[in-house]
Amino acid sequence: MSIESSLPAKEILERQRGHWDENFSQRPEMFGAEPSDPALKAAELFRREGKTSLLELGGGQGRDTLFFAREGFQVTVLDYSQAAMEAISAKAEAAGLAGLITAIRHDVREPLPFDNEVFDGCYSHMLFCMALTTAELERLSDEVRRVLKPGGLHVYTVRHTKDPHYGTGAHRGEDMYEVGGFIVHFFTSEKARQLARGCEVVSLDEFEEGGLPRKLFRVTLRKKREG
Length: 227
Description:
The protein is α/β, with parallel strands linked by helices. The protein has a single domain, classed as 3-Layer(aba) Sandwich (Rossmann fold). 33% of the residues lie in helices and 29% in strands. Strand 9 and strand 10 form a beta hairpin.
């Protein structure tokens, strides 16, 4: 048995933080500078519904964060990589957007550091398909619902089980596989609906991204209003 295969699953998942920090530090534009297509579509929806205060989870190097701020949204962005948060803060300052962006280092496996019902919308691009167990995703979904205002929107994207990388590389438990050093939690539509408790499923759309291409769901949820 190799050392790698004998490591406890939790320890393997924990090592992802260092892997992301290293990549963010050594590859300052690893995802490019242009906003993602999901961010463009989310901004259109948020704007149409008059949403102004956004929470972004897993902001990475900030390509979507800066786009939202340039569009006039007030953005609070979280990431567990210190290198990522420092990069976003520096970019926001250089672009004259520091007043619209608050960058906080935070591990989303822990309770979100906000009061109840403070954000109009929540957005993340592939944060939910990182090295998070289903139990951790359920807790995070509950936390997002808690900090959203009634009627607030939650838009997130995840790679799904029809993706070419699904079932390849090293199996890391549940539907998680490690490919190229990155662990991905692949979703079924059933899992997306399972995580939607307390919310209306507005839409569950399939799309493709990148040269592989990666196959993803775009999940749009609305927090239910009381009564």
